[in-house]
Design goal:
four-stranded mixed beta sheet, seven-stranded mixed beta sheet, 15% strand, alpha/beta
Length: 343
């Protein structure tokens, strides 16, 4: 897979394993126990549920939290990176060790409601899709907020490519949460579940685009049992260093995919919209960036846009609401300067 820096080969399947759950963890001792405990309540026989924790160079008691959960999960395994390599590499290490007929993910600071995975398995098997997605719940302190997957058709076998366009409205490529899905082993063996390890953040966005471009089918099912913990200070999305620019690496990756795709021209407006939306999201937090990072942010965002067809970028800038256009004015000016230099 483009962008990988190591050879990745899946393990041989084990017919006794129904589901493999990949849990990347770095310094996650405070929350990992709850995440693993929730796996014991999924309505799946515990001998058929494989939990693979990948300790990404932790310096806290993450390993002890895994050991404490071993009495709950008979097929719990921990793998370790001696030095941190990032969430994409941790997930890939877990995927390479997975034996299950189906695969899913759970982050170490999140958890699943009872019976959630059983509902995903049932939906996937009944529909016969390559993967299923579901809604999720944002959890911040005691507050809970349902976030629905942006697809109203439920329990129908759908073409993933037809859930990319149009621009201007939310579609499934704007819903990159890996743990909100259940994925067939066939996708793993076809190479579609590996993540691009050179993308530090927003690696799930590049991954989601590739899945929707290349997977044969999918469905959305109703199970709001994935709880996403918001406001984790250790999250990479809260980093205010060069990792903040990871979404631009993801955009470059997707642009390269679309350049080779026969429908790439049709999907480009969606990529531009997504890039502008994420640029605005990050630019709102510019006061938390240092001056050098702000200048680099504007230059690199303008550079990514400058590598896309100018007529598409102009059209999507024109479609922005006024407040968003004002927010992105520095990026637009830098983009226009880039076009003049190129001319």
């Amino acid at each position: 897979m483009s962008g990988q820096n190591r050879e990745l080969v899946p393990a041989q399947p084990d017919p006794s394993v129904e589901v493999s759950v990949i849990v990347p963890a770095r310094d996650a001792a405070a929350t990992l126990g709850d995440a693993l405990a929730s796996l014991a309540l999924q309505g799946i026989e515990l001998d058929a549920l494989e939990a693979i924790v990948v300790d990404d160079g932790s310096r806290d008691a993450t390993a002890q939290a895994v050991a404490a959960a071993s009495s709950l999960l008979p097929r719990l395994t921990m793998l370790r990176h001696d030095v941190p390599r990032g969430p994409a590499a941790a997930r890939n290490t877990g995927l390479a060790a997975a034996h299950g007929r189906l695969v899913t993910f759970l982050d170490a600071d999140d958890w699943l409601g009872p019976g959630h995975l059983a509902r995903l398995v049932s939906g996937l098997d009944a529909i016969g899709a390559s993967f299923v997605k579901c809604d999720h719940v944002l959890a911040e302190g005691q507050r809970r907020e349902l976030r629905r997957a942006p697809e109203t058709r439920r329990y129908q076998r759908l073409d993933p490519r037809e859930s990319i366009a149009p621009a201007g409205v939310a579609t499934m490529v704007d819903y990159p949460n890996l743990p909100t899905g259940m994925y067939s082993r066939g996708l793993l063996e076809a190479g579609l579940l590996w993540l691009t390890e050179t993308i530090a953040t927003a690696e799930d966005r590049a991954w989601t685009w590739r899945l929707h471009l290349e997977a044969p089918s999918y469905a959305v099912v109703d199970s709001a049992g994935m709880f996403y913990r918001r406001g984790n200070p250790r999250s990479l999305t809260g980093a205010f260093d060069q990792r903040r620019l990871g979404y631009l690496d993801a955009a470059r990756y997707v642009a390269a995919l679309l350049d080779r795709d026969p429908d790439g021209e049709r999907f480009l407006p969606k990529l531009v919209d997504q890039t502008l939306a994420l640029t605005g999201f990050h630019w709102l937090r510019r006061r938390q960036m240092g001056g050098d990072l702000r200048r680099r942010f504007v230059a690199e965002a303008a550079g990514v846009l400058g590598d896309l067809p100018a007529e598409v970028v102009a059209e999507r800038f024109a479609a922005l609401p006024r407040y968003r256009a004002q927010l992105l004015a520095p990026v637009r000016r830098a983009y226009r300067r880039r076009l003049r230099w190129r001319a």
